[in-house]
Design a protein that fits this description.
The chain has 153 residues and is of the alpha+beta class. It has a single domain (2-152), classed as Aminopeptidase, CATH 3.40.630.30. It has four helices and seven strands. This is GNAT family N-acetyltransferase. It comes from Gottfriedia luciferensis.
């Protein structure tokens, strides 16, 4: 049974594990040393960012095992016409373990992220999409802008 939870400090190690799987699958980490560097740096980042509500993550758990994850960074920038409040969110770490793909988990996580954005007054959501993720983001209303995709709420 799938259960979606909002990540707290208790799930940091699970977040790190899924992030490492994602980065290795994308070929971004080339050695055990690079894995360790990302693991340590991510742990430090999450300990701080989760406390300050600067990083929000949702995780799908199946029978106690994490199988899919999302992450987003909330930040404020100077206002511009489309976003007078200047509040934005960058979505990253969208990942589903291979044997659980195609079950709509990423969509459910993305919906949670968008709901959380609206709750926090976010006006612009953006991300860098993988080839696999691009169709989902397009279905959810994201449009391509240069190398990123964005959604105005």
């Amino acid at each position: 049974m799938f259960n979606i939870i909002k990540v707290t400090h208790e799930q940091i190690e699970q977040v790190i594990s899924l992030r490492l799987k994602l980065l290795n699958e994308l070929g971004e980490l080339k050695s055990h040393e690079e894995d360790k560097l990302i693991e340590t740096s991510t742990r430090e980042y999450l300990n701080t960012a989760l406390s300050k509500n600067e990083f929000i993550s949702f995780m799908v758990v199946n029978n106690g095992v994490p199988v899919s994850i999302s992450g987003m960074v909330l930040f404020k920038r100077p206002p511009y016409l489309e976003n007078l409040q200047g509040i934005e969110a960058y979505i990253l770490n969208m990942y589903t373990v291979s044997e659980f793909r195609g079950k709509g988990l990423a969509r459910k996580l993305l919906e949670k992220c968008i709901y959380e954005c609206k709750k926090n007054g976010v006006k612009r959501v953006w991300l860098h999409a993988s080839e696999d993720g691009r169709p989902l983001y397009k279905k959810m209303g994201f449009t391509k802008k240069d190398s990123e995709m964005e959604l105005f709420l």
